[in-house]
Amino acid sequence: MTRPESLRLHDRGGGPLPSTAPVDPPDLGAAVTRSFADRHIGPDREELARILPVVGVGSLRELAEAALPTSILDDSDAALAGLPPAATEHEVLAELAAIANANTVATSMIGLGYYDTLTPPVLVRNLLENPAWYTAYTPYQPEISQGRLEALLNFQTMVSDLTGMEVANASMLDEATAAAEAMTLLRRAGRSRSSRLLVDADLFPQTRTVLNTRAEPLGIEIVTADLAGGELPDGDFFGVLVQTPGASGRIVDWTGVIAAAHERGAPVAVGADLLAATLLSTPGEQGADVCFGTTQRFGVPLGFGGPHAGYLAVRQAYARQLPGRLVGVSVDADGNTAYRLALQTREQHIRREKATSNICTAQVLLAIVAAMYASYHGADGLRDIARRVHGHAAAIAAGLDGAVVHRAFFDTVLAHVPGGAEAVVAKAKSRGINLRLVDADHVGIACDEATTGEHVAAVVESFGTASSVEAAAVGDDNGSAAIETRTSEFLTHPAFTAYHTETAMLRYLRRLADKDIALDRSMIPLGSCTMKLNATAEMEPITWPGFARMHPYAPVEDSPGLRKVVADLENWLCEITGYDAVSLQPNAGSQGEYAGLLAIRRYHLDRGDAHRDTCLIPSSAHGTNAASAAMVGMRVEVVRCRDNGDVDLDDLRAKIADHAERLACIMITYPSTHGVYEHEVAELCALVHEAGGQVYVDGANLNALVGLARPGHFGGDVSHLNLHKTFCIPHGGGGPGVGPVAVRAHLSRYLPGDPLAADSHAVSAAAYGSASILPITWAYIRMMGADGLRRATLTAIASANYLARRLDEYFPVLYTGDNGMVAHECILDLREITKRTGVTVDDVAKRLADYGFHAPTMSFPVAGTLMVEPTESENLAELDDFVEAMIAIRAEIDRVGAGEWPVEDNPLRGAPHTAACLVGEWEHPYGREIAVYPRGIAHARAKVWPPVRRIDGAYGDRNLVCSCPPLEAYAD
What's the sign of the alpha-carbon dihedral 926, 931, 936, 938? Predict the structure, then answer.
């Protein structure tokens, strides 16, 4: 197979593992300047001196030896030896500037679903570069996430309006994965029992590759045919998938094909370009059942492939089949409109191996950029942009005349130049323009928002034609009337008509951000999620043109800087994890899981072990583990956990014996999902290996291992790594994410490769996934160095144990490892408290908003508990403030338990409290001041006023509304 060229095997050495690790923090002494690690890590030396005695150890070295199994600890002198020394922020920014400048930012006219776009500066500064937006988390606490939920509702409305569909989700990972999700949706929604999917021949090639990757393990046969003529091949199909405009630029009215497919009982998915949809009749009007695509050209930079927000939209009948996130409209306790995630918001945890998708996130930040781009331009502005784009394409077609293959096109012209395609592309390249070399006889030319008349003239000249069309090319609507078949209105909601000035947009973005709690306002102590500092120096380079304006299929010689970032990260991540090879392609943790399991599956198939199809998964595992296993065609068998949370090795031995011949792998998380270091992990790995299986180590909790232990050394064969957790890529309100997959040498040939290469098994549309945000992780590792990374890990462990010790007498810590230690997170058990008082984890979570905090993770991995992860970035004052808030909440719970406040009417059940609720009638048995200043005004944090009260989730699911309210609702 072909893999990205910078993928290299890494020499990881060998030899016995030492039993101890010298991991004392460096002597900060009287240093005049602080290192970046000192800025990133919250507790300084004096604060650590107060934290460690509470934990019960005398040093970070002692902490490591007490918490981790000695059998897996690395010698700190050897661990991470391959990393470069730590650099300062300014040194790293200078290095990255040189790397970015090494890239050639040519005018991209390659197309294939990736287009240059002009992001309005008001969105760059106040959204894309604003920590109030990029440091937010997935809105599981909707009362303090109303801003981003409203923005996502706008996104869903935009997609629904432009596609003519009734329901759209809150984004997908990219266009190709959206198409793959559309494929499986058609299969489960259709009536046919056929295993065949009919796909039009003019689909984007990268989309076709990802479809093939997803289809094979599920037994789906993809049948490709040219459907533009309206004829369907013989035979049954469970669905039909087409695209407009196609890869060649061709526009097809799919009404006849869709009607013919429906006559055979096959639903149809259409890939639609949303900018073209402002001029063309919509897939919904043509009868489509599902729409998929990307919103990249709506203000989201090219970024060498990502991150971008894909989309998926369906008819109302399929709304409950939609994978991913779906924002819905509900009401709060006072009857006010409020937004929340609707339906099966964590389907993978509910249905596990029966889940319809393993996607548990979205591309929220990029979806919001796209939605705000549409809001800023409005319907008329988008139409003007579309007409200008088409006008430039029409001017090129006029200049090439007889060479044009398709006469119906929007932005992409396919030119036939027998034997001369390479020469034309080379001439255009000499003029600073990249065209698409389709084959020896054809060239593709794609226009976009950044195309100018000068570009048009240069392209025509590259074909050896005089540039007489230059003047015509400058026109805004050159020939566009000929393709304008859309008659329906779109984007009529106030969200898309009220913010066309910069003043209005600036204030709208600020108003929405003020409704949310992000890391710029408070600690977000979410277990399993690692909400740590996203440093400004890490974030600054991502909008530089050398990273942001690169097309993923630009000539290799244009991108040496980005390829250096990729190669460095591959090597550094191998060093950190102990694996031999890494692919950065997966653009989410779920995709990394899928890619890792797919590698295991293909390894067994190549060895003639097709019968090895059983995946063992502990009962404590994250739900995506089981969903991912099912997606690669594996059978899931659950292994029990002991009362202390560890995997039950006796049950593991029994399961291995039962499935020895069929055992493909085991999926474990380390440290465990319960937040402890299991001391038998090496034995667990050995048992599976002895039975011929592979060991998948979920890298979600790698923040508790970096610099201390490496899964590739203690038994793992493959792991995915969440760069948006351990390695500082921000969560962005629920995306972007990056989930590279790392493997031992024997699996390296099965890593995902370039989607345009032959025999590729790509899992994302671009070779390096969300490449433009990789400089974030590059900068983090480069600035921290080996010592800084190790200190970060140990401080995260120390802080988690500090919280566990201080809160255990108020909220019992459910699981601990040997020596009573937790890893980087701890689970607070409220089940007995709930049984005695009626106060639930939901009550505590909502009440924390009144105290100015985001809640920990609720009811995962154990229902009725809170999972707390402080990370290394929070200082002692913030940790103590959280502890005091939780102790105060426990005192309130005790007052409920004592009967002082009724179970149904107390500050916890009434939480969160808004400013508006204070000015109305007050009939509660507790005072207004207790409601909103529970520790008194003098001891309050900077007040966070939730914009809504407790949201009625059941109401929202019963009355599913997933787009902006109609105009009459505003009139009412």
Answer: negative
Whether the CB-CB separation of 459 and 445 falls below 8 Å is answered with yes
CA distances from 116 to 377, 450, 551, 565 (A): 17, 6, 8, 22
Degrees (nearest 5) of the Cα angle 593, 139, 854? Answer: 110
If one counts the domains in the chain, the total is 1
Does residue 374 sit in helix, strand or coil? helix
Enclosing domain of residue 284: 141-372
Cβ contact 269:289 at 8 Å: yes
**666 to 590, 629, 652, 715, 882: CA distances (angstroms):** 17, 10, 10, 11, 37
- Per-residue pLDDT at 401 exceeds 90: no
Beta bridge partners of 866: 828, 858
Q: Band of the pLDDT at 621, cuts 50, 70, 90?
A: confident
Q: Which residues pair with 292 in a beta bridge?
A: 271, 312
What is the DSSP-derived secondary structure letter of residue 17?
P
Tokens linked to 959: 């009355």
Query: Domain containing 232 — which CATH number?
Result: 3.40.640.10
Give the tokens for residue 666: 């085991």
221-225 and 196-200 strand pairing: parallel
d(CA 80, CA 576): 6
Higher pLDDT, 190 or 934: 934
Question: Which segments of 763-875 does DSSP mark as H helices, in order?
Answer: 774-807, 831-837, 841-850
Question: Residue 946 domain-assigned?
Answer: no
Mean pLDDT of 812-816: 97
Predicted local distance difference test score (pLDDT) of residue 963: 85
* H/E segment holding residue 829: strand 826-829
663-669/614-618 β-pairing: parallel
918 within a domain of the structure (yes/no) = no
Question: Which phi-psi region, left, alpha or beta, contains residue 558 (left: φ > 0; alpha: ψ -120 to 50)?
Answer: alpha
Identify whether 16 is part of a domain.
Answer: no
With respect to residue 229, please indicate whether it lies within any of the assigned structural domains. yes
**CA distance linking residue 449 with residue 278, whole number of Å:** 14
- Using only the alpha carbons of the chain, give its radius of gyration: 28
